[in-house]
TrEMBL record, chains A, B:
Binding-site positions, substrate: W150, T175, R201, H251, N278
UniProt entry keywords in alphabetical sequence: Amino-acid biosynthesis, Diaminopimelate biosynthesis, Lysine biosynthesis, NADP, Nucleotide-binding, Oxidoreductase
Protein's pathway: Amino-acid biosynthesis; L-lysine biosynthesis via DAP pathway; DL-2,6-diaminopimelate from (S)-tetrahydrodipicolinate: step 1/1
Species the sequence originates in: Saccharibacillus brassicae
Protein name: Meso-diaminopimelate D-dehydrogenase
Domain Meso-diaminopimelate D-dehydrogenase C-terminal span(s) in chain numbering: 124-277
Recorded catalytic activity of this chain's protein: meso-2,6-diaminopimelate + NADP(+) + H2O = (S)-2-amino-6-oxoheptanedioate + NH4(+) + NADPH + H(+)
Length: 328, 328
């Protein structure tokens, strides 16, 4: 029997819990320990039968873990943790600040090379699966136009922005693709869209007692960068309704490329996701790329890699011969 | 300036002409010559400004061509041509007899290794892009169920079967996915379908003068393997209408996987194509993989490869750094 891939999780929020669930769905993997900056005792008290270890002890697990899945946030956790851990372990992360990826790549690449380790950065679904489909569609249809739509789904950044508005107790924001825009593209058009023509923003807000709802609404819809360029709806609801109806983390979206070939034949490539749980899905992508990281390392590779660099066959537990026979 | 990738085309039917068009859309490539078993003079007489060469002279072009794109059929051409040419050139083909791929792979792999060449086999969209999406979706959502739908599009094999029915002068068959089946999957169900519940078959037939239309219809709808297991419609039309309305080669389809993660969150991954020209699109995929073949060979690789073995970044003319910056 082949030895299981031994996985560590660094960071135990929604994404880390999703990784734990995803590992349980993959019989060729096992979870060794969860690393966190929180007191391991506070995590153990939840009654979960997991080994929790303080992050400061992570180096002691070098020999026990084949690949570390980094589940921190892109704003402050990963820029620090990935280069640090990439020198010690093969790693996978979901660093998603698109504009900073080149710099992040360089830092992780250097650290991983020095440690002789393999790091897969910026995987998940965007960056990740969506990026792969953008690349694939552009390479196949060089004459064409491409669109990415996000949603319907909860945007954490925009939900946070709502909660900073004076008088707001709680709130959640859904990014919603405009169906008319998608229909136009699917009908073969390649329009240029204004920002507000592609996505709408729907906010569900719990106001503090006595707060001025009109003032809150105005503060949200006119907020620059976040809402001013969009058609934004604001619906006031109760705390109970928020908890009952809006506690999930659905998301999804599409990458669509319309191109032409030959004497003007229209061709369309479309990739879409509809996710009831964004963090669980992202976690499932990370876990598949953890398998790929181990395989690349076994080939003697080291340094940073992205989804563009990795053969798809490395994501599957099946052998190359099985894949050719069953899936090609 | 970087030297262009020098391409040869072997076989000049619909697919070969599609490859010629696709090369013209990719500024990093140039077409050197078209190889055919037909008399080059008969091809030149069409007035096309191309170099046509008889297949028997192909070996003389070893130094002039970086990659040969094989555009013959899977029934008889490719099983013979790919192993033969794979020993002489880097090659790309669209061998699509799914059941015979393992044996084909072995033969091409041996030939290419002996010649020190790199052969990408069985690319296009199915096998090809659809296979990649089956693999990707299964790897990410191991608990789930997957569906492939084809169409709406013209099936050459079924059109040929119609034309063999006594009394039929000409005809074309469209494979059409059943919308109710797709809707059920998209709504989150994971049903088991009978063959007839997934696809319908619509036939447009030109009868010979005086032929018995009812007999033709009955012969078609009851034909085993091809039509008996499907809901098949037969519409009689004139030769003029056939030529006017049914001379295109549209196709497409979907790969959909519905899975669950965590405590039962439903997740759906969907990849779809809508193609006005099936051969031109397949050709565009072959051309992108020709670029990948040259890159893999430049890395020192040889032997046969499938879409599962090739990093997506190799399909693009852009550098890895550009891809990370622009598309990730």
């Amino acid at each position: 029997m082949q030895q299981k891939i031994r996985i560590g999780i660094a960071g135990y929020g929604n994404l880390g819990r999703g990784v734990r669930s995803a590992i349980a769905q993959n019989p060729d993997m096992e979870l060794v320990a969860v690393f966190s900056r929180r007191d391991p005792k506070s995590l153990e008290q939840r009654g979960e039968s997991l080994r929790f270890v303080h992050m400061s002890d992570v180096e002691r697990y070098k020999e026990e873990i084949d690949v570390m899945i980094l589940c921190g946030g892109s704003a402050t956790d990963l820029p620090e943790q990935t280069p640090q851990l990439a020198a010690l372990f093969h790693t996978v992360d979901s660093f998603d600040t698109h504009a900073k990826i080149p710099e992040f790549y360089d830092r992780v690449h250097t650290a991983a090379l020095l440690g002789g380790k393999l790091s897969v950065i910026s995987t998940g679904w965007d960056p990740g699966l969506f990026s792969m489909n953008r690349l694939l569609a552009q390479s196949i249809l060089p004459e064409g136009k491409e669109y990415t739509f996000w949603g319907s789904g909860v945007s954490q950044g925009h939900s946070d922005a709502i909660r900073r508005v004076p008088g707001v107790r709680a709130g959640v924001q859904y990014t919603v693709p405009v169906q008319a825009a998608i229909d136009a593209i699917r009908s073969g058009e390649t329009p240029e869209f204004e920002t507000r023509e592609k996505h709408a923003r729907n906010c569900y807000v719990v106001a503090e007692d006595g707060a001025d709802e009109n003032a809150i609404r105005e503060a949200i819809v006119s907020m620059p960068n976040y809402f001013a360029d969009y058609d934004t709806s604001v619906t006031f609801i109760t705390q109970e309704e928020l908890e009952r109806e809006h506690s999930g983390m659905p998301h999804g979206g599409f990458v669509i490329r319309s191109g032409v070939t030959g004497a003007g034949s229209k061709q369309r490539i479309e990739f879409g996701l509809e996710l009831e749980s964004n963090p669980e899905f992202t976690a499932s992508v990370l876990v598949a790329y953890a398998r790929a990281a181990v395989r690349l390392a076994a080939e003697g590779q080291s340094g940073a890699r992205t989804v563009f660099d990795i053969p798809l066959g490395h994501l599957s537990p099946k052998s190359a011969a099985e894949l050719r026979r069953e899936l090609l």
